[in-house]
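Thread amino acids onto this structure.
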């Protein structure tokens, strides 16, 4: 049998037209199944993009450790004891934990939420978060330094009075067309020279307040200028490639507990947050969502495919006498099977194609609306469907359509020609 036989296709169209109501309802089931699968896949990707894009290039293999109060007496020291990290801990962590890639001690001087204006320039003032930073922080939480530079090692070693300001700080303290680089701002009565302006690349992870309203100054400068001594607020640490952050976390907590005479059994003396674990859990959640989408989508598609199989059984029954005539005239079982399977594949492919086009069109339409409306939703962004996934779904559907036609086709060839000719 030739696939491009004109008479064959005329016969297929005649059969489908004769059963147009049942054909339409069955085809709609297939259409709806792949349409909903594409919509769900696009929505799932939009949710994942919104969450992951909000993290920007933040190092996901990061650990953050800070001090709390002890809850267990240890070596003569009482429970409820408060303590601080210090500069010596920086050196100890670097020397004793080779798995560390970046170590960024941090200290917060003031917060934008304190309610008092801590920054002045000429006749303008504002309340901003003032943070003491190391250069490594820009490697852990990369930001767009679109003017000037970030804090460097010379700033740290020489305790320079320089500042890197966020975009909101620039808007409040400077005129729109004014270049802030080289200008001086007053932080709690001390003058600092602006050497950079940054825009955050991620919005979902904040330390010490909104980043746009933050001012970064050298860590050592903040300690000395504002009499913090050698106190360290907390540590931001990343592990080297292919080394789990949990290993660095465990070693750092053990070392810091020893250095500050904290019981190894005291789980409350340190606050710590493992971003890698949270990120893996989030990825697991999205994997689960994707799996659920495929289960529901394939289930819906199977319902449509079963409908295709049912209507083909009806068509075979209605064409029993015709099939008998074809067999009597010399048609082989392969000819009969091929014809019925081709009808099933044709119906499945057409319905699936239109469902695919409609689903992709709706997803792209939603994405277009979000872009044109200037939506800045951090939880839903750029819904999309991977082209390879869409084509794979259609190929699977076509294969399923062939299987759907196989059962009616095998039933058709089992009918003896003499019995088929007597069928009314």
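Threaded sequence (424 positions):
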């Amino acid at each position: 049998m030739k696939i491009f036989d004109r008479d064959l296709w005329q016969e297929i169209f005649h059969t489908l037209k004769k059963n147009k109501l049942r054909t339409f309802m069955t085809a709609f089931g297939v259409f709806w199944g792949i349409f909903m699968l594409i919509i769900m896949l696009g929505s799932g990707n939009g949710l994942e993009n919104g969450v992951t894009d909000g993290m920007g290039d933040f190092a996901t293999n990061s650990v953050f450790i800070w001090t709390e109060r002890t809850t267990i007496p240890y070596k003569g020291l009482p429970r409820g004891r408060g303590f601080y990290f210090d500069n010596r801990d920086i050196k100890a962590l670097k020397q004793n934990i080779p798995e560390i890639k970046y170590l960024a001690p941090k200290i917060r001087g003031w917060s934008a939420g304190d309610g008092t204006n801590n920054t002045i320039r000429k006749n303008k003032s504002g309340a901003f978060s003032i943070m003491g930073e190391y250069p490594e922080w820009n490697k852990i939480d990369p930001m767009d330094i679109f003017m000037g530079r970030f804090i460097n090692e010379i700033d740290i070693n020489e305790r320079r009075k320089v500042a890197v300001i966020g975009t909101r700080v620039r808007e409040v303290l400077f005129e729109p067309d004014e270049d802030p680089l080289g200008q001086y701002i007053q932080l709690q009565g001390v003058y600092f020279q602006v050497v950079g302006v940054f825009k955050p690349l991620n919005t979902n992870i904040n330390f010490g307040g909104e980043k746009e309203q933050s001012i970064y100054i050298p860590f050592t400068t903040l300690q000395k200028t504002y009499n913090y001594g050698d106190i360290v607020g907390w540590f931001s640490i990343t592990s080297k490639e292919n080394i789990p952050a949990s290993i660095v976390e465990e070693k750092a907590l053990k070392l810091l507990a020893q250095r500050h005479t904290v019981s190894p059994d005291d789980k409350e003396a340190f606050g710590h947050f493992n971003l890698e674990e949270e990120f893996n859990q989030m990825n697991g959640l999205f994997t689960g969502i994707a799996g659920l989408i495929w289960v529901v989508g394939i289930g819906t598609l199977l319902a449509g495919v079963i409908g295709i199989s049912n209507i083909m059984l009806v068509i075979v029954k209605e064409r029993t006498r015709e099939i008998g005539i074809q067999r009597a005239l010399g048609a082989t079982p392969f000819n009969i099977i091929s014809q019925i399977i081709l009808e099933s594949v044709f119906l499945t492919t057409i319905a699936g194609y239109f469902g695919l086009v409609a689903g992709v069109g709706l997803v792209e339409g939603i994405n277009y609306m979000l872009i044109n409306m200037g939506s800045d939703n951090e939880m839903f962004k750029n819904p999309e469907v991977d082209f390879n996934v869409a084509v794979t779904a259609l190929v699977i559907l076509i294969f399923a359509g062939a299987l759907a036609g196989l059962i009616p086709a095998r039933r058709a060839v089992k009918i003896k020609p003499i019995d088929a000719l007597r069928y009314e």
